[in-house]
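I'd like us to work through together how a protein chain folds, taking it slowly. To get us started, please write out a protein record for me. Label the sequence line and the structure token line clearly, so we can match residues to local backbone shapes. Once you have written the record down, we can walk along the chain together.
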Amino acid sequence: MTTTNPTTTDTYRKIAARLTMLRPQIDLSKYFAGPNPNVRLYDEKAYIRRQLEKYGVAAATSTLDGVTFLPKDWEDLIKTLRVAKTSDGFDAFAEGKSPEKPSHWALDLSMAATIGKGFREIWRPKLSDRPLSTRDLPGRHGFGLGRGRGQWSDDYSAQFGKDPSSRKTSRRCISR
């Protein structure tokens, strides 16, 4: 059976690219201990075990499940991940703790399948500089609110903060 080199997979390439956007940049491959035909990880999926045996690193089928490897310099890797920052200066990773003393139950639960030490990249939403608009609302263009429901009307919206007294007064009623 042929085993795909994990460093050529989409999962590995996406993760490796994200690590280069951190400060300091992280080259994950410098931490790989190398192939280990004697690795015994019985709880891992078979393709992960085969990749670890042959390449010393394994890439899951999605970035959510990440990359598995045996590190050659454990302390340096942990130190690097703990100090890594985003380009905005925020911590890049959350570190999984002991399930016996959970500091963040959701994070620790997400690492329940992790063998060894686990780190998760912290996701932060990026807000747009574009101002809000009533044109973004569902139903504004005749869809999104469902059949038989009223549609958005600028006449009754007061334009989110604009002075409603300056709007044309109307005696029409909205009917359904």
